[in-house]
């Protein structure tokens, strides 16, 4: 059975600020000043990296017991490469990330092999990682003028 998640994004009056909202939780997303923003929040691709790391962290916490994996601490370091000239229209290159790299860090007494197997499970199970690795059909469901 499918579950539908919903969000809104509304351009604010200042610079490139956008207020996003889902289930009543709000995030202000912006761009750095050198990209025309006011630097009051992460930019969308930084939020994407954070969403991937958060998803991996949640999967680790939610499924550690079921995988008989014990850890004291877990965090993910993420980085992605994109050419801003694509977004800015200066070059005919992809606008989005060309590659995202991540390192999962466990503070654990488990073996390296067991940590790698659990990391593979996390990568296979994470919905955000699945969306990024396999793509998602984007559907423009309409344009509304007010």
Q: List the total number of helices.
A: 4
Low-pLDDT stretches = none
The CATH topology label of the largest domain is: GMP Synthetase, Chain A, domain 3
Helix/strand class: alpha+beta
* Relevant CATH superfamily of the largest domain: K homology (KH) domain
The count of strands amounts to 5
Task: Note the beta-strand portion.
Answer: 15-25%
Distance between the termini: 34 Å
What strand line-up does the widest sheet have?
1-2-3
Would you write up a description of this structure?
The chain has helices at residues 44-63, 84-88, 112-125, 127-134; strands at residues 8-11, 18-22, 25-29, 73-81, 99-107. The radius of gyration is 18 Å and the shape is globular. Helix 1 packs across helix 3 (112-125). It has two domains: 1-41; 42-134, GMP Synthetase, Chain A, domain 3 (2-Layer Sandwich). Strand 2 (18-22) and strand 3 (25-29) form a beta hairpin. Helices cover 32% and strands 22% of the residues. A three-stranded antiparallel β-sheet has the order 1-2-3, with no helix packed on it. The protein has a two-stranded antiparallel sheet with strand order 4-5. With 146 residues, the chain is an alpha+beta fold. It has four helices and five strands; from the N terminus they run E-E-E-H-E-H-E-H-H.
């Amino acid at each position: 059975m499918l579950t539908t998640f919903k969000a809104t994004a509304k351009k604010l009056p200042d610079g490139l600020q956008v207020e996003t909202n889902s289930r009543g939780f709000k995030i202000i997303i912006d761009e750095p000043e050198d990209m025309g923003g006011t630097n009051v929040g992460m930019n969308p691709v930084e939020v994407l990296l954070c969403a991937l790391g958060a998803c991996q962290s949640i999967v680790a916490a939610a499924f550690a017991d079921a995988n008989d994996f014990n850890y004291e601490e877990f965090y993910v370091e993420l980085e992605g490469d994109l050419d801003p000239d694509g977004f800015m229209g200066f070059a005919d290159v992809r606008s989005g990330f060309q590659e995202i790299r991540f390192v999962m860090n466990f503070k654990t007494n488990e073996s390296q092999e067991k940590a790698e197997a659990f990391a593979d499970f996390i990568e296979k199970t994470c919905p955000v990682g699945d969306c990024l690795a396999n793509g998602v059909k984007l559907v423009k469901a309409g344009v509304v003028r007010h």
